[in-house]
Amino acid sequence: MICRVCGGPLTEFFDFGRQPLSDAFLTADDLDRQFFFRLAVGACESCTMVQLVEEVARDRMFHDAYPYLSSGSSAMRRHFEETAQFLTDGELGGPDPFIVEIGCNDGVMLKTIGKAGIRHLGVEPSGGVARMARAEGVRVRTDFFEEASATRVLGEEGPADVIYAANTICHIPYLDSVFRGVDALLKTDGVFVFEDPYFGDIVERNTFDQIYDEHFFFFTVRSVQAMAERMGFELVDVRRLPVHGGEVRYTIARAGRRRPSERVAAMVEEEAGRGLAAPATLARFGANIESIRHDLVELLQDLRAQGKRVIGYGATAKSATVTNYCGIGPDLIPFVCDTTPAKHGRLMPGSHIPVRPAEAMSDPYPDYALLFAWNHAEEIMAKEQEFRAAGGRWILYTPDVRIV
Ligand code: SAH
Ligand code: TYD
Ligand code: ZN
Fold it and tell me: Count of CB atoms within 10 A of residue 300's CB?
Protein backbone atom coordinates (compact mmCIF):
# COMPACT_ATOMS: atom_id res chain seq x y z
CA MET A 1 0.00 0.00 0.00
CA ILE A 2 1.54 3.27 -1.11
CA CYS A 3 0.49 6.92 -0.88
CA ARG A 4 -1.25 8.20 -4.03
CA VAL A 5 0.49 11.60 -3.61
CA CYS A 6 4.10 10.86 -2.64
CA GLY A 7 4.59 7.09 -2.99
CA GLY A 8 5.42 6.75 0.73
CA PRO A 9 4.17 3.84 2.87
CA LEU A 10 0.47 3.90 3.76
CA THR A 11 -0.67 2.61 7.17
CA GLU A 12 -4.30 1.51 7.25
CA PHE A 13 -6.20 2.65 10.36
CA PHE A 14 -9.83 1.72 9.74
CA ASP A 15 -11.67 -0.86 7.63
CA PHE A 16 -15.42 -0.46 6.93
CA GLY A 17 -15.48 -3.74 5.01
CA ARG A 18 -17.40 -4.41 1.81
CA GLN A 19 -19.24 -1.28 0.67
CA PRO A 20 -21.29 -0.34 -2.41
CA LEU A 21 -21.00 2.78 -4.58
CA SER A 22 -22.51 5.49 -2.38
CA ASP A 23 -24.48 7.26 -5.12
CA ALA A 24 -25.71 4.13 -6.94
CA PHE A 25 -29.44 4.31 -6.17
CA LEU A 26 -30.88 1.04 -7.41
CA THR A 27 -33.83 -0.13 -9.48
CA ALA A 28 -35.10 -3.70 -9.00
CA ASP A 29 -33.07 -4.70 -12.09
CA ASP A 30 -29.81 -3.49 -10.53
CA LEU A 31 -30.04 -5.71 -7.46
CA ASP A 32 -28.00 -8.60 -8.87
CA ARG A 33 -25.28 -6.45 -10.43
CA GLN A 34 -24.18 -4.17 -7.62
CA PHE A 35 -20.53 -3.19 -7.40
CA PHE A 36 -18.76 -3.57 -4.05
CA PHE A 37 -15.25 -2.69 -2.90
CA ARG A 38 -13.29 -2.67 0.37
CA LEU A 39 -13.67 0.73 2.03
CA ALA A 40 -10.64 1.32 4.25
CA VAL A 41 -8.59 4.40 5.14
CA GLY A 42 -4.92 4.87 5.83
CA ALA A 43 -2.42 7.65 6.50
CA CYS A 44 0.89 8.15 4.68
CA GLU A 45 3.87 7.74 7.00
CA SER A 46 5.82 10.18 4.90
CA CYS A 47 3.54 13.11 3.89
CA THR A 48 0.66 12.34 6.39
CA MET A 49 -2.05 12.41 3.67
CA VAL A 50 -5.12 10.43 4.76
CA GLN A 51 -6.65 8.49 1.88
CA LEU A 52 -8.63 5.43 0.82
CA VAL A 53 -6.68 2.23 0.48
CA GLU A 54 -8.66 1.02 -2.56
CA GLU A 55 -9.60 3.21 -5.52
CA VAL A 56 -12.87 2.88 -7.47
CA ALA A 57 -12.67 3.54 -11.25
CA ARG A 58 -13.91 7.07 -11.90
CA ASP A 59 -16.43 6.13 -14.64
CA ARG A 60 -18.30 3.88 -12.20
CA MET A 61 -19.01 6.92 -10.00
CA PHE A 62 -19.21 9.96 -12.29
CA HIS A 63 -21.38 9.41 -15.35
CA ASP A 64 -24.49 10.67 -17.10
CA ALA A 65 -26.82 9.50 -14.32
CA TYR A 66 -24.76 10.84 -11.35
CA PRO A 67 -27.62 11.91 -9.03
CA TYR A 68 -26.05 14.46 -6.63
CA LEU A 69 -27.36 18.00 -7.10
CA SER A 70 -25.36 20.80 -5.50
CA SER A 71 -28.34 23.17 -5.58
CA GLY A 72 -30.44 20.89 -3.32
CA SER A 73 -29.80 22.99 -0.22
CA SER A 74 -30.66 26.67 0.21
CA ALA A 75 -27.72 27.14 2.60
CA MET A 76 -25.32 25.76 -0.03
CA ARG A 77 -26.85 27.95 -2.76
CA ARG A 78 -26.18 30.94 -0.50
CA HIS A 79 -22.64 29.72 0.27
CA PHE A 80 -21.80 29.51 -3.45
CA GLU A 81 -23.36 32.92 -4.22
CA GLU A 82 -21.05 34.34 -1.55
CA THR A 83 -18.12 32.39 -2.99
CA ALA A 84 -18.80 33.84 -6.46
CA GLN A 85 -18.92 37.32 -4.96
CA PHE A 86 -15.66 36.70 -3.04
CA LEU A 87 -13.89 35.64 -6.25
CA THR A 88 -15.40 38.46 -8.31
CA ASP A 89 -14.33 41.08 -5.76
CA GLY A 90 -10.87 39.54 -5.39
CA GLU A 91 -8.89 37.40 -7.83
CA LEU A 92 -11.24 38.08 -10.76
CA GLY A 93 -10.93 41.87 -10.43
CA GLY A 94 -8.52 42.39 -13.37
CA PRO A 95 -9.32 43.02 -17.07
CA ASP A 96 -11.25 40.24 -18.90
CA PRO A 97 -10.79 37.63 -16.16
CA PHE A 98 -11.27 33.90 -16.86
CA ILE A 99 -12.21 31.24 -14.29
CA VAL A 100 -12.32 27.46 -14.69
CA GLU A 101 -14.29 25.38 -12.19
CA ILE A 102 -13.41 21.73 -11.70
CA GLY A 103 -16.61 19.79 -10.86
CA CYS A 104 -19.19 22.57 -11.34
CA ASN A 105 -22.06 20.06 -10.97
CA ASP A 106 -25.43 21.78 -11.69
CA GLY A 107 -23.78 25.22 -11.91
CA VAL A 108 -24.54 26.29 -8.34
CA MET A 109 -21.46 28.58 -8.22
CA LEU A 110 -20.81 29.45 -11.88
CA LYS A 111 -24.32 30.69 -12.59
CA THR A 112 -23.61 33.75 -10.44
CA ILE A 113 -20.26 34.23 -12.21
CA GLY A 114 -22.00 33.89 -15.60
CA LYS A 115 -24.70 36.40 -14.69
CA ALA A 116 -21.95 38.89 -13.78
CA GLY A 117 -20.70 38.52 -17.39
CA ILE A 118 -17.39 36.91 -16.38
CA ARG A 119 -15.69 34.47 -18.78
CA HIS A 120 -15.89 31.00 -17.28
CA LEU A 121 -15.85 27.30 -18.02
CA GLY A 122 -16.97 24.37 -15.91
CA VAL A 123 -15.24 21.02 -16.42
CA GLU A 124 -17.71 18.37 -15.26
CA PRO A 125 -17.70 14.68 -16.28
CA SER A 126 -21.26 13.87 -15.13
CA GLY A 127 -23.42 14.59 -18.18
CA GLY A 128 -26.80 14.98 -16.46
CA VAL A 129 -25.71 17.65 -13.98
CA ALA A 130 -23.64 19.37 -16.71
CA ARG A 131 -26.84 19.76 -18.78
CA MET A 132 -28.58 21.31 -15.79
CA ALA A 133 -25.73 23.82 -15.48
CA ARG A 134 -26.04 24.71 -19.18
CA ALA A 135 -29.75 25.32 -18.66
CA GLU A 136 -28.66 27.98 -16.12
CA GLY A 137 -26.53 29.73 -18.75
CA VAL A 138 -23.25 28.18 -17.59
CA ARG A 139 -20.59 27.09 -20.12
CA VAL A 140 -19.58 23.49 -19.39
CA ARG A 141 -17.24 20.97 -20.97
CA THR A 142 -18.32 17.39 -20.17
CA ASP A 143 -14.94 15.96 -19.19
CA PHE A 144 -12.74 14.90 -16.30
CA PHE A 145 -10.23 17.60 -15.37
CA GLU A 146 -6.70 16.24 -15.72
CA GLU A 147 -3.55 17.14 -17.66
CA ALA A 148 -4.89 16.28 -21.13
CA SER A 149 -8.25 18.09 -20.79
CA ALA A 150 -6.61 21.12 -19.11
CA THR A 151 -4.19 21.45 -22.04
CA ARG A 152 -7.11 21.35 -24.49
CA VAL A 153 -8.93 24.04 -22.48
CA LEU A 154 -5.80 26.21 -22.61
CA GLY A 155 -5.65 25.83 -26.41
CA GLU A 156 -9.31 26.77 -26.87
CA GLU A 157 -9.81 29.42 -24.19
CA GLY A 158 -6.41 30.73 -23.10
CA PRO A 159 -4.96 30.81 -19.57
CA ALA A 160 -7.05 31.11 -16.39
CA ASP A 161 -6.77 33.65 -13.57
CA VAL A 162 -8.48 31.28 -11.15
CA ILE A 163 -9.00 27.53 -11.11
CA TYR A 164 -11.63 26.75 -8.48
CA ALA A 165 -13.11 23.55 -7.08
CA ALA A 166 -15.49 22.73 -4.22
CA ASN A 167 -15.90 19.23 -2.84
CA THR A 168 -14.16 17.81 -5.90
CA ILE A 169 -10.37 17.77 -5.43
CA CYS A 170 -10.81 15.28 -2.56
CA HIS A 171 -12.66 13.05 -5.09
CA ILE A 172 -9.63 12.74 -7.41
CA PRO A 173 -6.94 10.10 -6.74
CA TYR A 174 -4.83 11.20 -9.77
CA LEU A 175 -3.87 14.61 -8.35
CA ASP A 176 -0.42 14.52 -10.00
CA SER A 177 -2.19 14.83 -13.36
CA VAL A 178 -4.56 17.49 -11.97
CA PHE A 179 -1.62 19.62 -10.77
CA ARG A 180 0.14 19.27 -14.16
CA GLY A 181 -3.14 20.45 -15.70
CA VAL A 182 -3.32 23.41 -13.30
CA ASP A 183 0.30 24.23 -14.12
CA ALA A 184 -0.50 24.24 -17.84
CA LEU A 185 -3.72 26.25 -17.60
CA LEU A 186 -3.06 28.80 -14.84
CA LYS A 187 -1.56 32.23 -15.52
CA THR A 188 1.87 32.81 -13.92
CA ASP A 189 0.30 34.67 -11.00
CA GLY A 190 -3.04 32.90 -10.99
CA VAL A 191 -4.42 30.90 -8.06
CA PHE A 192 -5.81 27.43 -7.59
CA VAL A 193 -8.52 27.61 -4.89
CA PHE A 194 -10.27 24.53 -3.54
CA GLU A 195 -12.44 23.68 -0.53
CA ASP A 196 -13.07 20.25 0.91
CA PRO A 197 -14.13 18.57 4.16
CA TYR A 198 -11.41 19.12 6.79
CA PHE A 199 -9.98 15.99 8.40
CA GLY A 200 -9.48 17.98 11.62
CA ASP A 201 -13.27 18.47 11.85
CA ILE A 202 -14.03 14.88 10.79
CA VAL A 203 -11.94 13.56 13.69
CA GLU A 204 -13.24 16.11 16.18
CA ARG A 205 -16.91 15.56 15.29
CA ASN A 206 -16.65 11.81 14.56
CA THR A 207 -18.21 12.37 11.13
CA PHE A 208 -16.95 9.02 9.88
CA ASP A 209 -19.64 8.92 7.17
CA GLN A 210 -17.59 11.47 5.18
CA ILE A 211 -15.62 8.34 4.28
CA TYR A 212 -17.07 6.67 1.14
CA ASP A 213 -16.01 5.74 -2.40
CA GLU A 214 -16.07 9.28 -3.85
CA HIS A 215 -14.11 10.89 -1.01
CA PHE A 216 -10.64 9.58 -1.75
CA PHE A 217 -8.56 12.14 0.21
CA PHE A 218 -9.10 13.68 3.66
CA PHE A 219 -7.03 16.83 3.75
CA THR A 220 -5.20 18.57 6.56
CA VAL A 221 -3.34 21.85 6.15
CA ARG A 222 -0.06 20.04 6.64
CA SER A 223 -0.76 17.36 4.01
CA VAL A 224 -2.02 19.90 1.46
CA GLN A 225 1.04 22.08 2.08
CA ALA A 226 3.35 19.09 1.47
CA MET A 227 1.39 18.10 -1.65
CA ALA A 228 1.51 21.63 -3.11
CA GLU A 229 5.28 21.79 -2.58
CA ARG A 230 5.81 18.44 -4.22
CA MET A 231 3.88 19.64 -7.30
CA GLY A 232 5.91 22.90 -7.63
CA PHE A 233 3.30 25.09 -5.92
CA GLU A 234 2.88 26.70 -2.52
CA LEU A 235 -0.03 26.85 -0.08
CA VAL A 236 -0.49 30.59 0.49
CA ASP A 237 -3.78 30.84 2.39
CA VAL A 238 -6.32 28.79 4.33
CA ARG A 239 -9.81 29.69 5.57
CA ARG A 240 -12.17 27.59 7.63
CA LEU A 241 -15.68 27.21 6.25
CA PRO A 242 -18.73 26.13 8.27
CA VAL A 243 -20.37 24.09 5.46
CA HIS A 244 -20.70 20.27 5.25
CA GLY A 245 -19.63 19.81 8.86
CA GLY A 246 -16.45 21.88 8.57
CA GLU A 247 -14.23 22.51 5.56
CA VAL A 248 -11.06 24.37 4.70
CA ARG A 249 -10.60 26.54 1.60
CA TYR A 250 -7.01 26.31 0.35
CA THR A 251 -5.38 28.92 -1.91
CA ILE A 252 -2.40 27.66 -3.87
CA ALA A 253 -0.04 29.70 -6.05
CA ARG A 254 3.14 28.89 -7.96
CA ALA A 255 6.10 28.54 -5.57
CA GLY A 256 7.55 31.90 -4.53
CA ARG A 257 4.91 34.07 -6.28
CA ARG A 258 2.94 35.12 -3.17
CA ARG A 259 3.69 35.61 0.48
CA PRO A 260 1.84 32.95 2.52
CA SER A 261 -0.57 34.33 5.10
CA GLU A 262 0.12 33.72 8.78
CA ARG A 263 -2.97 31.56 8.94
CA VAL A 264 -1.14 28.75 7.12
CA ALA A 265 1.65 28.41 9.70
CA ALA A 266 -0.85 28.88 12.54
CA MET A 267 -3.02 25.98 11.36
CA VAL A 268 -0.02 23.71 10.71
CA GLU A 269 1.09 24.41 14.27
CA GLU A 270 -2.37 23.79 15.68
CA GLU A 271 -2.61 20.45 13.86
CA ALA A 272 0.79 19.39 15.21
CA GLY A 273 -0.21 20.48 18.73
CA ARG A 274 -3.31 18.30 18.73
CA GLY A 275 -1.47 15.36 17.10
CA LEU A 276 -3.90 15.22 14.18
CA ALA A 277 -1.74 12.80 12.19
CA ALA A 278 -0.59 10.76 15.21
CA PRO A 279 -1.41 7.02 15.30
CA ALA A 280 -3.07 7.45 18.73
CA THR A 281 -5.47 10.07 17.30
CA LEU A 282 -6.38 7.83 14.37
CA ALA A 283 -6.88 4.85 16.70
CA ARG A 284 -9.17 6.91 18.97
CA PHE A 285 -11.19 8.01 15.93
CA GLY A 286 -11.56 4.33 14.97
CA ALA A 287 -12.73 3.38 18.47
CA ASN A 288 -15.31 6.20 18.38
CA ILE A 289 -16.66 4.91 15.05
CA GLU A 290 -17.17 1.46 16.62
CA SER A 291 -18.99 2.95 19.64
CA ILE A 292 -21.31 4.92 17.36
CA ARG A 293 -22.18 1.77 15.44
CA HIS A 294 -22.93 -0.08 18.69
CA ASP A 295 -25.05 2.74 20.16
CA LEU A 296 -26.97 3.48 16.98
CA VAL A 297 -27.90 -0.13 16.29
CA GLU A 298 -28.91 -0.62 19.93
CA LEU A 299 -31.11 2.50 19.87
CA LEU A 300 -32.84 1.51 16.62
CA GLN A 301 -33.47 -2.03 17.91
CA ASP A 302 -34.85 -0.68 21.21
CA LEU A 303 -37.19 1.70 19.40
CA ARG A 304 -38.40 -1.10 17.15
CA ALA A 305 -39.02 -3.29 20.22
CA GLN A 306 -41.12 -0.43 21.68
CA GLY A 307 -43.17 -0.32 18.47
CA LYS A 308 -41.90 3.15 17.46
CA ARG A 309 -41.67 4.22 13.80
CA VAL A 310 -38.29 5.54 12.67
CA ILE A 311 -37.60 6.85 9.16
CA GLY A 312 -34.42 8.20 7.57
CA TYR A 313 -34.05 11.82 6.38
CA GLY A 314 -31.73 12.57 3.42
CA ALA A 315 -30.55 9.82 1.06
CA THR A 316 -27.01 11.17 1.22
CA ALA A 317 -23.92 9.48 -0.19
CA LYS A 318 -22.67 9.55 3.41
CA SER A 319 -25.62 7.39 4.55
CA ALA A 320 -24.32 4.46 2.47
CA THR A 321 -21.39 4.16 4.89
CA VAL A 322 -23.67 4.36 7.93
CA THR A 323 -26.30 1.86 6.78
CA ASN A 324 -23.86 -0.67 5.35
CA TYR A 325 -21.27 -0.47 8.12
CA CYS A 326 -23.96 -0.66 10.83
CA GLY A 327 -26.10 -3.23 9.01
CA ILE A 328 -29.20 -1.00 9.01
CA GLY A 329 -31.84 -2.17 6.54
CA PRO A 330 -35.58 -1.70 5.84
CA ASP A 331 -36.37 -3.74 9.00
CA LEU A 332 -35.10 -0.83 11.13
CA ILE A 333 -35.72 2.10 8.73
CA PRO A 334 -38.63 1.40 6.33
CA PHE A 335 -37.77 4.33 4.04
CA VAL A 336 -35.64 7.44 3.67
CA CYS A 337 -37.17 10.68 2.39
CA ASP A 338 -35.22 12.99 0.09
CA THR A 339 -35.89 15.93 -2.25
CA THR A 340 -33.82 14.63 -5.22
CA PRO A 341 -36.18 13.43 -8.01
CA ALA A 342 -33.59 11.00 -9.46
CA LYS A 343 -33.42 9.12 -6.12
CA HIS A 344 -37.21 8.64 -5.73
CA GLY A 345 -38.55 5.13 -6.16
CA ARG A 346 -35.01 3.75 -5.96
CA LEU A 347 -33.34 1.63 -3.28
CA MET A 348 -30.36 2.82 -1.28
CA PRO A 349 -27.13 1.09 -2.29
CA GLY A 350 -26.32 -2.04 -0.28
CA SER A 351 -29.02 -1.55 2.38
CA HIS A 352 -31.94 -1.57 -0.13
CA ILE A 353 -33.91 0.94 1.95
CA PRO A 354 -36.46 2.62 -0.38
CA VAL A 355 -36.14 6.35 -1.09
CA ARG A 356 -39.35 8.40 -1.13
CA PRO A 357 -40.11 12.09 -1.76
CA ALA A 358 -39.82 14.56 1.14
CA GLU A 359 -43.62 14.73 1.46
CA ALA A 360 -43.71 11.05 2.52
CA MET A 361 -42.46 12.14 5.93
CA SER A 362 -45.78 13.61 7.02
CA ASP A 363 -47.92 10.71 5.82
CA PRO A 364 -48.28 10.23 8.82
CA TYR A 365 -45.33 11.64 10.78
CA PRO A 366 -43.05 8.97 12.31
CA ASP A 367 -41.99 8.97 15.97
CA TYR A 368 -38.34 9.52 15.05
CA ALA A 369 -36.31 10.62 12.03
CA LEU A 370 -32.67 9.59 11.69
CA LEU A 371 -30.96 12.62 10.17
CA PHE A 372 -28.50 11.34 7.55
CA ALA A 373 -28.21 14.88 6.08
CA TRP A 374 -26.82 16.20 9.40
CA ASN A 375 -24.75 18.80 7.51
CA HIS A 376 -28.04 20.50 6.59
CA ALA A 377 -29.54 20.15 10.09
CA GLU A 378 -30.37 23.81 10.60
CA GLU A 379 -32.14 24.16 7.26
CA ILE A 380 -34.00 20.85 7.60
CA MET A 381 -35.10 21.29 11.22
CA ALA A 382 -36.37 24.78 10.38
CA LYS A 383 -38.54 23.50 7.56
CA GLU A 384 -39.78 20.40 9.43
CA GLN A 385 -41.07 22.20 12.50
CA GLU A 386 -44.45 20.49 12.17
CA PHE A 387 -42.76 17.12 12.68
CA ARG A 388 -41.51 18.29 16.07
CA ALA A 389 -44.83 19.91 16.88
CA ALA A 390 -46.45 16.53 16.18
CA GLY A 391 -44.19 15.01 18.85
CA GLY A 392 -41.46 13.79 16.48
CA ARG A 393 -37.80 13.66 17.54
CA TRP A 394 -34.56 13.70 15.55
CA ILE A 395 -31.88 11.07 15.96
CA LEU A 396 -28.31 12.25 15.39
CA TYR A 397 -25.27 9.96 15.32
CA THR A 398 -22.41 12.50 15.33
CA PRO A 399 -20.44 13.37 17.39
CA ASP A 400 -22.33 10.65 19.29
CA VAL A 401 -25.74 9.00 19.18
CA ARG A 402 -28.42 11.25 20.67
CA ILE A 403 -32.08 12.17 20.42
CA VAL A 404 -32.92 15.88 20.07
N1 SAH B 1 -18.78 21.63 -6.67
C2 SAH B 1 -20.04 21.03 -6.32
C3 SAH B 1 -20.09 19.52 -6.67
C4 SAH B 1 -19.42 18.57 -5.74
S5 SAH B 1 -19.77 16.88 -6.16
C6 SAH B 1 -20.37 21.25 -4.86
O7 SAH B 1 -19.50 21.63 -4.09
O8 SAH B 1 -21.49 20.99 -4.46
C9 SAH B 1 -18.29 16.43 -7.00
C10 SAH B 1 -18.38 16.70 -8.49
O11 SAH B 1 -17.07 16.48 -9.07
C12 SAH B 1 -19.33 15.80 -9.25
O13 SAH B 1 -20.26 16.58 -9.96
C14 SAH B 1 -18.42 14.97 -10.16
O15 SAH B 1 -19.03 14.63 -11.39
C16 SAH B 1 -17.23 15.89 -10.34
N17 SAH B 1 -15.92 15.28 -10.68
C18 SAH B 1 -15.41 14.08 -10.31
N19 SAH B 1 -14.19 13.91 -10.83
C20 SAH B 1 -13.88 15.02 -11.56
C21 SAH B 1 -12.77 15.46 -12.35
N22 SAH B 1 -11.68 14.71 -12.51
N23 SAH B 1 -12.85 16.67 -12.95
C24 SAH B 1 -13.94 17.45 -12.81
N25 SAH B 1 -15.02 17.11 -12.07
C26 SAH B 1 -14.99 15.90 -11.45
P1 TYD C 1 -25.40 16.10 1.02
O2 TYD C 1 -25.33 15.86 2.46
O3 TYD C 1 -25.21 17.49 0.59
O4 TYD C 1 -24.29 15.28 0.26
P5 TYD C 1 -23.78 13.78 0.09
O6 TYD C 1 -24.77 13.05 -0.78
O7 TYD C 1 -22.51 14.03 -0.61
O8 TYD C 1 -23.59 13.12 1.43
O9 TYD C 1 -26.76 15.54 0.45
C10 TYD C 1 -27.95 16.00 0.97
C11 TYD C 1 -29.08 15.08 0.59
O12 TYD C 1 -30.20 15.40 1.39
C13 TYD C 1 -29.48 15.22 -0.87
O14 TYD C 1 -29.82 13.93 -1.39
C15 TYD C 1 -30.70 16.12 -0.79
C16 TYD C 1 -31.28 15.80 0.57
N17 TYD C 1 -31.95 16.95 1.21
C18 TYD C 1 -33.31 16.82 1.54
O19 TYD C 1 -33.91 15.77 1.28
N20 TYD C 1 -33.94 17.89 2.12
C21 TYD C 1 -33.29 19.05 2.40
O22 TYD C 1 -33.90 19.99 2.92
C23 TYD C 1 -31.90 19.15 2.09
C24 TYD C 1 -31.15 20.40 2.39
C25 TYD C 1 -31.27 18.06 1.49
ZN1 ZN D 1 2.42 10.51 1.07
Answer: 21
Identify the nearest ligand to the CA of 123 by its number.
1
* Residue 48 CB–ligand 2 contact under 6 Å: no
357 lines ligand 2 (CB under 6 A): no
Buried/exposed code over 355-386 (b: 16+ C-beta within 10 A; e: otherwise): bbebebbeeebbebbbbbbbbbbeebbeebee
pLDDT tens per residue, range 155-187: 999 999 999 999 999 999 999 999 999 999 999
Ligand found nearest the CA of 51:
3
- Dump the DSSP string for 182-230: HHHHEEEEEEEEEEEEBHHHHHHHT-GGG-STT--EEB-HHHHHHHHHH
Is the minimum distance from the CB of 358 to ligand 2 under 6 angstroms?
A: yes
Domains of the chain are 61-279 (3.40.50.150)
Is residue 66 in contact with ligand 1, taking CB distance under 6 Å? Answer: yes
Tens digits of per-residue pLDDT, 352-390? 999 999 999 999 999 999 999 999 999 999 999 999 999
